[in-house]
Give the backbone structure.
Amino acid sequence: MSLDKLKIAFQYALPKHGISRLVGKLAAAEAGALTTALIKLFIKQYKIDMTEALHEDPAHYKTFNEFFTRPLKPGIRPLADASDIIAHPVDGAISQLGDVIDGQIIQAKGHDYSLQTLLGGKEEDVAPYLGGKFACIYLAPKDYHRIHMPIDGVLRKMIYVPGDLFSVNPLTAQNVPNLFARNERVVAIFDTAIGPLSMVLVGATIVASIETIWAGTVTPPAGKDVFSWEYPTEGMNAIKLKKGDEMGRFKLGSTVILAWGANQAEFLANQQPETVTRMGTPFATISQ
């Protein structure tokens, strides 16, 4: 058995939820010098550029989670604020992007999966995106892990979908069928100038939690049922976010998947699989 196949087999065997929740508790612990030493080791291992961080000194962070979700210095990620531009929501690298064909989207070469399943299983939730576009962006451990709005939007619905916690790195994406539609995830659906926009925050092995700015920690705790929440789109209680506003964060790395409807926006020509992304830079142009 090759090393890659052994790594995949090991993931199937691991108690992924238990390990992830344990790591989450450790990452939230205030362990003083031990926490600082762990952060320094992580910075060295993943070659993290701390000059971008608002607080460069590892000793500033009381927990590993505080470090991992560290804010950046103001202005370090200039926003493509032209009204016809959709911006990148995260730092990371594009895994796949393209058309939603017959309700399927590409995971990796030879692997497609159902967008309806990804979004929680309801036909009415997936209908606006049939024939539209999708993009999947992978956040590596070294990346900035706050998620921002790619366009102005008003939150309409949030869905929690229970699932597994496989790693979402490129090797796993190439070898585990339906990876993103089988992992635990949080779906946020926004009304925007290009119609409905879905942003799917996918969990992974040792992801301590997924948070949104309006609901706080959505997971953990994990569950066995799909839950959904509806939000008012008008009035004082509407949750309105501008392009570039933070909408959520991962405590340890994962993946964000975007979807929008047909003939609404086109990816820029230089956006391809493996393209490195930086939050706020141009991603797509809105169709006129």
About this structure: Residues 54 and 73 are 4 Å apart (CA to CA).
